[in-house]
Amino acid sequence: QVRLRESGGGLVQAGDSLRLSCAASGRTFSRFALGWFRQTPGKEREFLAAITWSRGSTYYARSVEGRFTVSRDNAKNTMYLQMNSLKPEDTAVYYCATFESGNYFSVRSYDYWGQGTQVTVSS
After folding, report:
1. Cα–Cα nearest to 7, from 117, 90, 94
2. CB atoms closer than 10 angstroms to residue 7
């Protein structure tokens, strides 16, 4: 049904910037808010940011607010994550997901997930 595909990851140096994209297919996309998460081996998936599709309201984790910016292009069914001043600790697999209900900051509130895109930040 709903399918998500992340892109834009890669290998960058500390202090550099990247913009990740999350392309969605399916006509139920606009009913959900979308969120960005990241995960490293052995750790739980971490919430980063979310945006509602209709109004564009945004929500950020404290750890990334000020450096990361979430946005969306409704016509393209695409969500973006602009990441600036990247640090080695930002190295992770980055995922996008569709919000179902509950707490925006909880991984349990999201139902459909993409495959993820690898971001590696070298020092």
Report:
1. 117
2. 13
